[in-house]
Write a structure and sequence with these properties.
Elements lengths: L14 E4 L3 E5 L1 H11 L6 E5 L6 H9 L6 H9 L5 H11 L13 H12 L4 H12 L4 E4 L6 E7 L9 E5 L1 H6 L3 E8 L7 H8 L3 E4 L4 H5 L1 H4 L1 H9 L3 E5 L14 H9 L9 E5 L6 H10 L3 E5 L12 H12 L7 E4 L14 H6 L3
Parallel strand pairs: 2-3, 2-8, 3-4, 8-9, 9-10, 10-11
Antiparallel strand pairs: 1-12, 5-6, 5-7
Length: 362
């Protein structure tokens, strides 16, 4: 027999505290930063990862194999990896890129491992991800936002007044990020992709959903462009938390203020409620303008120092975790209380009851 699991202490009303169930949406380094913070708050964490990457190793693999682009999924896996030495070594191996100039040059080991596992499982990416989560002792689960690779299609407006073509339609994540100008609109293709049931189940049972930080048009907004994801989010009772970027991203949000990021997000919510916006206190120039934009969304604003020291535009996991706790309304990370069956405690044995008590001890 295995060891018995400890039961959390119950309150007088028969409820027990548990950490919040969190679903974090995004991709790339932004999602990895969010996961590094959330894992300090809860072990019940699901990363829902964009599958639109068409550059580098992921682009090469998706063009050659009928699989989802693995790069952002790999980054989420390693962000959730366990803390013991062996696990960290395995995570470092999955992140290692082959050098040289041959056919493997530039491929991270993890991209090839995930692709190979998916092929072994007959194309089941979720099963392959679950295998790697177990191998890495992951603090949570990693799932793809759609069951098929996605393409992003953007309308980009030129900033050159002499450009005869004021707007262009650009297809592909890398092309969008590298095209000079400002993104005005973005779509996903196919426009109604299949979504794994595990993703919809995670949203339905979530206490908290988080969006950002990350590439606004190519990592954050795409989740709201998938009809099944947006419908699940609109129907969810979870608290929706948005973490704003520390600075505009060249090629996507050049010149955007924090409030402009939020205004663009609001235009894509499509019935999804927004409850809390987290912004770095040093990155906000117009606090009144941002507060007005947040209130326009019906949300509350948390201003906190969440960036790393030294001027590097990266979120500090410990500081961001503190801001997330504040957003959830408690320093302990919004523990939830659930009623659980409590063991029956027999009445004290009285004279004439010993026989029944003895026979009930089996």
């Amino acid at each position: 027999m295995g060891a018995a699991h400890a039961v959390p202490p119950a309150a007088a009303d028969g409820t027990v505290a548990r950490p919040p169930r969190v679903v974090a949406f995004g991709g790339g380094h932004g999602l990895a930063a969010a996961l590094a913070a959330w894992r300090r708050i809860t072990p019940d964490l699901t990363a829902v990862v964009t599958v639109a990457d068409d550059g580098g190793s992921s682009g090469r693999i998706r063009r050659e194999m009928p699989v989802l682009p693995p790069g952002d999924l790999r980054m989420a896996l390693t962000a959730l990896a366990g803390e013991d030495v062996e696990t960290r070594q395995m995570a470092a191996l999955l992140q290692h890129r082959f050098g040289g100039s041959g056919v493997l040059a530039g491929h991270p080991v993890g991209n090839l491992v995930l692709t190979g596992l998916t092929e072994l499982h007959g194309g089941d990416t979720v099963r392959a991800l679950d295998d790697l989560c177990r191998l890495l002792g992951a603090c949570g689960r990693v799932l793809p936002m759609a069951d098929v690779p996605l393409d992003l299609v953007a309308t980009v407006e030129s900033t050159d007044p002499d450009d005869p073509r004021r707007t262009r339609t650009i297809r592909g994540q890398v092309a969008i990020a590298s095209t000079p100008g400002r993104v005005r609109d973005i779509l996903v293709a196919p426009d109604d992709p299949p979504v794994n049931a595990a993703v919809l189940d995670a949203i339905a049972t979530a206490d908290v959903v988080s969006l950002g930080p990350g590439s606004w048009y190519t990592s954050v907004l795409p989740h709201l462009l998938v009809p099944r994801l947006r419908a699940a989010l609109a129907a969810s009772s979870a608290r929706v938390v948005v973490v704003l970027n520390l600075e505009p991203q060249p090629g996507e949000t050049d010149g955007f203020s924090p409030e402009e990021h939020l205004t663009v997000l609001q235009g894509h919510l499509g019935g999804v409620a927004l409850h809390t916006v987290i912004a770095d206190v040093e990155s906000v120039v117009d606090r009144c303008g941002l507060l007005s934009a947040v209130r326009e969304c019906g949300a509350e604003l948390v201003l906190a120092p969440v960036a790393e020291d030294g001027g590097v535009p990266r979120h500090d996991p410990v500081r961001l975790a503190g801001a997330l706790r504040e957003a959830l309304g408690t320093r302990q990370g919004m523990e939830k209380h659930e009623r659980v069956p409590q063991p029956l405690v027999p009445d004290p044995v009285r004279g004439g009851d010993e026989g029944n008590a003895a026979h009930g001890a089996g």
